[in-house]
Amino acid sequence: MAHKYKFQLYKDLLANVANIYGDAKKAADEIGIPKEIRGKFGMTGAISGCPAPLRKDILEASEKGAKEVIPLAKLMEEIRELVKDVYGDEYDAAAVSTCEAGIWASFDTLFTPPMQGRGDNYRARYIAPYEKHLHHQGSYGRPFPGRFKDIFADRGSTPGELGFYGKRQNNTDTVIVPLEGADYSVHGIKYHPVPLLTGVDPEASIEKLALHAEIHENMLTGFTSLGYETPGYGYGAKDEDGTPLLQKYIADLAHSYDIPYVVDNAWGLPFVGHDPRKSGADVVIYSMDKATGAATSGLIIGKEEYMVPIRRALGLHGDRWGTTASYGKAAYVAFDAGKEALLTQVQALKVLKDNPEVLTKPVDDLERIVKEEFDKINPKLRDGILISKSYNSTAVEVNYEGTWKNGQMGIPIFSIEDMYSGTNLMQTGMGQLGVIPTVAYDGNIYISTGLGTTDEDGNLIEDVARYGVKAQVKLIEIICHYAGLL
Length: 486
Prior knowledge:
Layout: H1 6-15, H2 17-31, E1 46-47, E2 50-51, H3 56-66, H4 72-87, E3 91-96, H5 99-110, E4 124-129, H6 134-137, E5 142-144, E6 172-177, E7 186-187, E8 192-193, H7 202-215, E9 220-226, H8 245-256, E10 261-264, H9 276-279, E11 283-287, E12 298-303, H10 304-313, H11 339-354, H12 357-374, H13 379-382, E13 386-390, E14 395-399, H14 416-421, H15 425-432, E15 440-441, E16 444-448, H16 462-482
């Protein structure tokens, strides 16, 4: 049936969850997904809760090093050398336990006011564009303006002070700035605003960001954003080198105030992906177990000026009696990466430096499969689907916000709050098909390699990957049937 309003479409989807799941289970047989692999492969190896199996070379490096006596400072020095080999001597690095640990340490080091000294603390503010995954890069301060005060309330597994609110740092605010050209329409069974970013205008957006920087100048301590490169994340407009214009503009704006620009590139590759030399970013933070393929850990790469205090906070920047490096106790000793993680980071960075095609070729192969299978989707749904490749994230992005153009109702869009409440049918429905889902909210599906879709050398297992993409296409059609669109 046709719906007069959006909320009615999502209400009908909620009423038909059991039917959608039932049809999805049947579709697994129709597609021919072998029963022995159901529940054992998925659409991305870059989800923290279900990381991809390690490549053979990563495992071998970890096992070999685990049997040897190696000071952790030596492994950290190897990582620093690899980073400097690629980016130059003006850059440095620090390994941490997770990407989120890296964000926390970087923000607390560079953005927050000092805790010591007489008198009351001043307040500090950093600026974060209103973009996807804002609960990561945008949740370390109290939201400003007040209309965003409860924006993270329904995200995460725990609410309140023990949830995302507990991440807020000392006397720090986050100035959240909507981007020009973006659409923040309300969607989902858990009906919330979603950032739809394919229309972001970088020139108009930086003017708006500059206005807010001027308003908050006397408290301004930094800028942050994601480091991704695709239209669905708002970074489709690029220069001739392929660097997103908005990221370059934010870097220039930050430097005009002599404050740092810190980039959250969790689902990104060092060396191959976001290049801080081109974007102007001062610090870039990675989740090394997502796209890069190391063991669970994070990596901070940045200009030496900003890495010195970060490394000091992590106990890596030398002993008190005077050394060039250490691996000791400091404010963020809880974020130590550990020997096994460091061993895998060294190997992963060596491959990215010397043999990047190990990670880029599977993306090319996956892109071909995604385009072939989405070309078979019901013709009524095809118009408005945008497919883009990202070497940075070893991913293929399927963005469908364009199916809602001209006031028509398109493929249902689920909010990130739907993901946390279990009502994102684009994700939960995949489980009914025997496929572990990927990130699929805000009208944006990010498909990447690694979770049972690559062999021990990292090569794409094409028939398994194709089963997953077929399942995603079929699930979209099932959902659209119960949404009254087919």
